[in-house]
């Protein structure tokens, strides 16, 4: 099988939730270490997310520029959103986010990669999709609000994004992982070797 992450769970003897927010919460666990000692681990509990690297027929990627208050930056990102409904099908969620944020639909979908964004302090799992054969979506544009009301939309060549990530000019996790993963796929076994869009996702099991 080669190198592979494996599921494992050390014994938790106590747990508490000192903070519950609108979408996420903070949990405190008392975890037993291999030597028998017990330590406290605080982490954010997250519903999970999907992200979409949408590639047009000229190898340009749809990107959005959005203000992110925790890091005090306007970041270039790819369309993404929370898995708001427990057990939600991630492909359906990704299709919704692409429509809402970019007013685009796609005919060809693949799983690009799955990641834990910050496993040392948050249980967020993200599935990054590759969407191709894109075109304008039907109907009215989705009405946005708050930070999304100020978003900018652009299409940027994939090679330019790769260079910007490696130069330290772009910092969004899903964008960086997505463009580097696609570059690796295109220079390796090809897009057809990617997993199908409905591939199992143990981190966030879903209904077909």
What brief labels describe this structure?
208 residues, Nucleoside Triphosphate Pyrophosphohydrolase, 2 domains, 3-stranded antiparallel beta sheet, 11 strands, globular, NUDIX_hydrolase_dom
Describe the fold and architecture:
- This protein is of the alpha+beta class and 208 residues long.
- The chain has two domains: 11-45, no CATH class; 49-196, Nucleoside Triphosphate Pyrophosphohydrolase, CATH 3.90.79.
- The chain is 18% helix and 39% strand.
- The chain is built from three helices and eleven strands, in the order βββββββαβββααβ.
- The strands form three sheets. Strands 7-4-9-8-11 form a five-stranded mixed sheet, with helices on both faces.
- β1 (12-20) and β2 form a beta hairpin.
- Structure classification: alpha+beta
Number of helices: 3
- Quote the distance from N terminus to C terminus: 26 Å
Q: What is the helix content?
A: 10-25%
Q: Give the percentage of residues in beta strands.
A: 35-45%
* Tally of structural domains: 2
Main sheet: which strands, in order across?
7-4-9-8-11
CATH-level-4 superfamily name of the largest domain: Nucleoside Triphosphate Pyrophosphohydrolase
* CATH fold-level name of the largest domain: Nucleoside Triphosphate Pyrophosphohydrolase
Main sheet overview: 5 strands, mixed
- What's the overall geometry? globular
Topology pattern, helix = H, strand = E: EEEEEEEHEEEHHE
Radius of gyration: 18 Å
How many strands? 11
The CATH class designation of the largest domain is Alpha Beta
CATH architecture of the largest domain: Alpha-Beta Complex
* Uncertain residue segments: none
Mean residue pLDDT: 94
InterPro entries: NUDIX_hydrolase-like_dom_sf, NUDIX_hydrolase_dom
GO molecular function, one term: hydrolase activity
GO biological process, one term: nucleoside phosphate metabolic process
Keywords: Hydrolase
